[in-house]
């Protein structure tokens, strides 16, 4: 795929977003590593390229545009605001080395506190219109519903926080659920550690960055967790029921309303889903055939906390999504230095779109 064609397609897409009312913006290729590390922890190093600048310190090649666009808007953006951009992002592909680690993105972001569900529908409808005729399948989800379900679990705040922290890592999340519910046994090494009267009295020097006080505090936290009663099987089953919801929007909504009877903490999130369906229909989207998957979005960047969506080629299931996006209200609060604003957006991969077209020709 020639870079000339991809760049030309990126400019065409950006022009479509400008026509929809977005202001074009640009972001530096090098971004401060501190910001991304604060957001995602050390895990981001496995997905981003890190470099050292003699004047600016540790930097990362931008893994996406959303974080710098949010920073820019929260610093001096007008309200409401719509932005578009186009440029290269950089992602390490350790798990999928055959995939490109440097590629183009063209995006559209909306900052508007008037009606979040209407903004969700606006972004999705613009992407659907821009990609119309490309033979793509659309998938939607809602991280807010899943996080509400996890937040309703009758267990310690520490366990709920751990599950919410790993909700974007399905295997780790499942391992924690199995441990907290008693499905999996405590490892013998941890069991021996917790049963020891003085785990630090082992006759060898302490190594690593943690002090003895920090290590002792961590051991006490593990002991407190071990004393917690297991999450009940009924609660585990309800989380599994939420994760299994995968139907068209009307049927998914009905299913989630049934589950929310036993998990009332989900009701507000389910109501937002219902309002979004209405807003999508008002935008001309056929919600009767639009797919909803409750687990969709769990392997995306961790800032999505509400509506999520993607567009895929069923003819080329080996390819990444042609487009993806979602709502990230919490990110604006974390980067807003005391301010926040509801925000939603998405990106299109011009190179993937061109590959899909080639497969159909």
Automatic annotation (TrEMBL):
Which Gene Ontology MF annotations are present? glycosyltransferase activity; histidine-tRNA ligase activity
Annotated positions binding L-histidine: 64-66, 91, 105, 109, 298, 303-304
Which GO terms of type biological process are on file? Answer: histidyl-tRNA aminoacylation
The reply to whether Ribosomal protein figures as a keyword in the UniProt entry is no
InterPro entries, per this entry? Answer: aa-tRNA-synth_II/BPL/LPL, HisRS-like_core, HisRS/HisZ
Which keywords label this protein? Glycosyltransferase, Transferase
One Gene Ontology CC term in the entry? cytoplasm
Signal peptide positions on this chain: none
User: Entry's Gene3D superfamilies?
Assistant: Bira Bifunctional Protein, Domain 2 (3.30.930.10)
Q: Per the record's keyword annotation, is Kinase included, yes or no?
A: no
Which parts of the sequence belong to the Class II Histidinyl-tRNA synthetase (HisRS)-like catalytic core domain?
Answer: 12-169, 220-347
Q: What is this protein called?
A: ATP phosphoribosyltransferase regulatory subunit
């Amino acid at each position: 795929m020639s870079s000339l064609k991809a760049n030309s397609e990126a400019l065409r897409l950006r022009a479509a977003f400008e026509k929809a009312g977005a202001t074009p913006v640009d972001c530096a290729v090098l971004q401060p590593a501190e910001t991304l590390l604060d957001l995602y922890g050390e895990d981001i190093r496995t997905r981003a390229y890190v470099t050292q600048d003699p004047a600016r310190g540790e930097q990362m090649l931008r893994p996406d545009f959303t974080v710098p666009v949010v920073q820019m808007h929260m610093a001096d953006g007008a309200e409401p605001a719509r932005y578009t951009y186009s440029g290269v992002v950089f992602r390490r592909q350790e798990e999928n080395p055959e995939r490109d680690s440097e590629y183009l993105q063209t995006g559209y972001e909306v900052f508007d506190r008037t009606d979040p569900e209407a903004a969700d529908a606006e972004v999705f409808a613009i992407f659907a219109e821009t990609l119309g005729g490309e033979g793509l399948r659309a998938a939607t989800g809602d991280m807010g519903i899943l996080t509400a379900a996890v937040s309703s679990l009758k267990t310690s705040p520490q366990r709920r926080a751990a599950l919410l922290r790993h909700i974007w890592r399905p295997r780790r999340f499942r391992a924690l659920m199995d441990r907290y519910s008693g499905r999996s046994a405590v490892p013998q090494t941890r069991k021996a550690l917790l049963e020891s009267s003085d785990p630090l009295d082992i006759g060898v020097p302490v190594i690593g960055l943690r002090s003895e006080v920090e290590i002792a505090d961590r051991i006490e936290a593990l002991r407190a967790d071990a004393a917690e009663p297991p999450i009940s099987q009924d609660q585990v089953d309800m989380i599994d029921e939420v994760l299994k919801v995968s139907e068209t929007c009307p049927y998914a909504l009905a299913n989630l309303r049934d589950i929310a009877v036993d998990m009332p903490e989900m009701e507000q999130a389910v109501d937002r889903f219902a309002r979004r369906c209405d807003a999508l229909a008002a935008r001309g989207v056929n919600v009767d055939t639009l797919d909803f998957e409750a687990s969709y979005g769990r392997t995306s960047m961790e800032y999505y906390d509400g509506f999520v969506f993607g567009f895929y080629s069923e003819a080329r299931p080996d390819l990444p999504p042609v487009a993806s996006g979602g709502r990230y209200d919490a990110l604006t609060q974390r980067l807003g230095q005391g301010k926040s604003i509801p925000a939603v957006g998405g990106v299109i991969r011009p190179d993937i779109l061109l590959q899909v077209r080639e497969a159909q020709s």
